[in-house]
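Input for the complex:
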Amino acid sequence: MDLNTMIQAMAKDAKQSARLLRVAKRAEKDAALAFMAERILSNKEEIIRINTKDITLAREKGLNPAMIDRLTLDEKTISSMIHGLQEVAALPDPIGEVTGMWKRPNGLQVGQIRIPLGVIGFIYESRPNVTVDAAALCLKSGNAVLLKGGSEAIHSNLILNEIVSEALKKANLPEKSIQVIPFKEHEAVGILLSMDEYVDIIIPRGGEGLISFVAENSKIPVLKHFKGVCHVYVDEFADLQMAREICFNAKVQRPGVCNAMETMLVHKNVASSFLPGMIEDFTSAGVEIRACENTLRLIPNLILAKDSDWPAEYLDLILTVKIVEDMDEAMDHIERYGSHHTESIVTNDYGRSKEFLEKVDASVVLINASTRFNDGFELGLGAEIGINTSKLHAYGPMSLKELTTTKFIVYGSGQVRT
Amino acid sequence: MDLNTMIQAMAKDAKQSARLLRVAKRAEKDAALAFMAERILSNKEEIIRINTKDITLAREKGLNPAMIDRLTLDEKTISSMIHGLQEVAALPDPIGEVTGMWKRPNGLQVGQIRIPLGVIGFIYESRPNVTVDAAALCLKSGNAVLLKGGSEAIHSNLILNEIVSEALKKANLPEKSIQVIPFKEHEAVGILLSMDEYVDIIIPRGGEGLISFVAENSKIPVLKHFKGVCHVYVDEFADLQMAREICFNAKVQRPGVCNAMETMLVHKNVASSFLPGMIEDFTSAGVEIRACENTLRLIPNLILAKDSDWPAEYLDLILTVKIVEDMDEAMDHIERYGSHHTESIVTNDYGRSKEFLEKVDASVVLINASTRFNDGFELGLGAEIGINTSKLHAYGPMSLKELTTTKFIVYGSGQVRT
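Predicted:
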């Protein structure tokens, strides 16, 4: 059998499983999640042993330490996987919620009810814990899932798949609801992306290269998250101490993630009182500042930002700084360079806060808070599967609800159309 | 300038307009809609005169009478356009609705607010009235729109665009919010589908050929509606008189539309009491019946259905009929041949109705009502722009709300992440 035939067979199995899964009870899904947690715990040594195989091979291939780190399953990552499963089990079941119901003049009772999407294709990179996290969210939301992780994690992913399947079986749910695609060939991704007859949606999670490849090659709709070029605008009416804490947190608390600040925009009227201390905080924390000419006039010895800096997502301790004439210039800058991810304003002015919130086009817009709050848990949605920066289907962090849709239900008593 | 450069310029203008439109007030949008209605009325003779040009050219090219009919703007279609504009103006503004708001333990107040999608690319066939209908829905939902209609309607579409632009200007809204792409070249569609930098979503409306072409060639997400292969299942516990009326209505009331019934599934226990009278009704109304072998045993002289009949969307006075062993067989048939559009059961059994409603995967599932109710107006949503049979973003009729998304808004007081 060729790769195409084998992946097609898996996709068919997924679709059949999805039909059963969409009517599965919450108790069954939560039981499966609990069994998964139990089995991961009791097979911890085995998982770590097999993961070591992946790590050894990765070292031989010369993967860098950051990638090895992401690949590694140890006591800590395993207990966080288990904790994640328990958390998802504790979340309410989104399926079956009636989001609205009304009566028509002819007596028809019309409603909308939440249902699963069907089959999700999840494409990710080397973290094997994502296999379990994604499987849990898909299962809880009643979706079957085909998981295609990075080839360097293949052995870890397969042992996790085995454990997960046993748990599904024990909970009387279809074993093929969750399937790791067991092929290392890169071709497998392209084949998965062509299975539009069986797969309803593709969610890629990883670097820009992976996401662009998926978006360009998929015959199936893709929920994508390109990049996070997030700004904080410090208004002339900001509490400057608050602004200093928010900006520092947005840049420094975890610079390698998509909701970290990449550019700080400062109103010209507070530039001289705000910037010197703020930039001292940043440089003390090892942040490299790339600034506009006006900032350089105020604080020499900084690097002059190039045109290519403004749209850049550094994911690192690098920050661009720009002094703006007014809030309009700040919003123009965000409109031009922002990535529809996370934008924040610091101000005590009522009108400015209202205007910024209304006009800025991003999945999360904040007043007087750090950009780092764009996260499923932090916003109170529970575990998330990624952040969608395209406006289709869901905008922002995607949690259980975003893995569903609604269908119309109509209760009649013999109505016909005239 | 080549076609690509010209369409890109239009798309850029649309994106700029969208930025203004997303904060437009309801009063401004409704005023523009009212001005459109007024101007269409006062320019009626001119519109009809220009439309005649399109019709003459279409006749010369040998277009069939059905296409000429769709192309024609007369007193009746024009007053229905005007009525449509007034109806959309009367609908509530979806933009700005806060769909939820909650407080986090750290005091952050988190909400979701409804916003427009941005720029919509609308691709359709020869009906020029769709130009105005689509423009109205896009405007009311705060979206800019690029309209690419069939080339045979070009003169009609351009005069309507002129009227619509004047109305926008008079209402102080950006004139480029609504733009008809003025090129007859088929190439223009492909170019529009490549403008992912400016266009957020593509909505095609037309035959299967157009929709497949758009889906396969678009770099932009597409909301698609492939076809409506709709079933009515007559259960053994149906009120047979009610079933007869519902099935007749579903097939005959307007056979050329996507929510008409294509296949009638009948429980074996009521086949002999139900089918003879029902089929007499159908044949009297000129419906050609293509039936399964069991039906033929009961009523000879019908055409035997071929394998290719079950997945067919006839859009005509043709009906396939199948006797099933039980509801499971009916649901299996729907799962296999249905198009996720509209499915109906006729039954007086509580358990069967509940099970069918839950298990059947279609954008609208009805109990004891005609499939013909899958329609924005009939379901109480107001005017619709099409029916989405893929599960992404919206499932079922797409009205104003479905042309929007939500963003997260966060009211903080200095919160940082720890």
